[in-house]
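Can't paste images in this forum, so I'm doing it all in text. The chain is below; anyone willing to post the predicted structure tokens underneath?
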Amino acid sequence: MVTTPLPDPPTAPRRPSAAWALWRVLAGRSARFAAGVHQAWRRSLQVRVVTITLVASSLLVGGFAYLIADKITNILLENAETDVRARLSNGSEYAAKQFNLYSQPQEAQLQDTIDGTVNYLAGGDPAQTSGVVVAITADNFAEFIEPRTSPDVPVRPVIGDELRAAVSSGKVAHQIRTGTLGGERTKYLVYGSPVPTRFGQVELYYLVPLARQDSTAADARATVVATGVALVLLLGLLAALVTRLVVTPVRVAARTAQRLSAGLLDQRMVVSGEDDLALLAASFNQMATNLQRQILRLEEMSRLQRRFTSDVSHELRTPLTTVRMAADLIFAERDEFDPAVARSAELLQAELDRFEELLTDLLEISRFDAGFAVLDSEPTDLVPVVHRVTERLAGLAERVGVTIELELPDTPVIAEVDPRRVERVLRNLVGNAVEHGEAKPVRITLGMDQSAVAITVRDHGVGLKPGEEKLVFNRFWRADPSRARQTGGTGLGLSISLEDARLHGGWLEAWGAPGQGAQFRLTLPARAGDRLTTSPLRLVPADATLPFGGPRDGGLLAIGPGSGAGALAIGPADTDRAEVAR
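Text version of the structure:
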């Protein structure tokens, strides 16, 4: 018969002990309390002032309390020592007179005289309750003279060997010892003095209890400590009240300033009194009034300017259309004119084209300024968009001797964008690169990751000076106003491109260095409404020469005005960590 053993029951998981659970709870509460204290310390000026006042006053009052208590203790001890020294001096003289009647220590009456002297010096009553103990010993004649004390208590454990040796050598000495003489352990001030006699020297000791002095010193310390604590609390309360008088108007001013910054320009502080805080409130209100008046004035001027720009742009459409019709007629018949008139017709046609572009850009800028620009996002393949831009600018590139190189993925790059606006941005970027390319190749790169798409336009022209990478997006700004242009741009292209990128929730950035050309990067979210954190393409091209031999891959290297190159940041090839904070 085969017996199959039963399996062992499953082992229950170990539960944490109650002590460990209690420790975790206490640690969590302590951490939360510490975090709350730290937050209150950082955010509240009143808490900091009161805390510093309490700490400083506690140290100061504590030091004074220690000095005062120590001084009181020393005075009580000095008084006790003075009293004992006086009694010891008188007792030594009296004992010497009594003992000088004997010439030998073995005389029969000597012991009785010692007993009477001890009782007399102790107050005449062996049962006295003052606590003072008087003792006479004769260590040199121990076989003839027995030690006597009044009251009759064993004093040898209280009289130390050092004191006994000092007195035996003929010196007056003292010490403070703690011992048990009357059933209770007490601290004693022990004074000893030699008493010269005809037969030799005996020792007289006074043992004075210091219980009363200790009690008085303890009461004084308690009184000083209680007074100090009350004073510290009073100083803390006073600091809190004074700080509150100052902090409250500051907090009101801060809240009012926050409301003003939020657009509530009618907010004002309450002015009460004629002190410095009232002057601060009145000055703040005057500043807010002037600020409100200036903001309203600027808003009105901006509104009038935008309206003027829009109205002028619209009103110029009608005469421009008439002039365009006449110019087209003249331009079509230019072959029948003499060469000077024909050339004038061509110049007129070119300038009218530029005038129309300028009106179009001004209307677009006015829409952005007025907040009327609308984004028509739709899933769009950006590869055909890049090809269309390249084909439209191929004629210009051929005239200036620039080759446009494309680096595009083999698969479609789909993103939710407004294709008209993206094409306009690329047309401006590629047109500027061709214009400033110095007859060198212009490279267009398209990249994509899970959250964003990016397009870079790289030229190898004169580049940008330090700081110009931010100025290129200003309206009507030109790096070299005297430089001849091939396309006759309006000066608003990059400004409109920047607004188009922002309307998408994207970035439009520039890098450039003298003699190394420039590169512009357009980064857009792959899905409309997403927030960008990184870019699939790096801003600084891989063939750029970095100052000081800086890193090309990995790590960030900021380039400032003194470095000889202008850029926002340099990051690794797959991401731009420096752009996360934008």
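The chain has three domains: 29-262, 268-373, 374-525. The mean pLDDT is 78.
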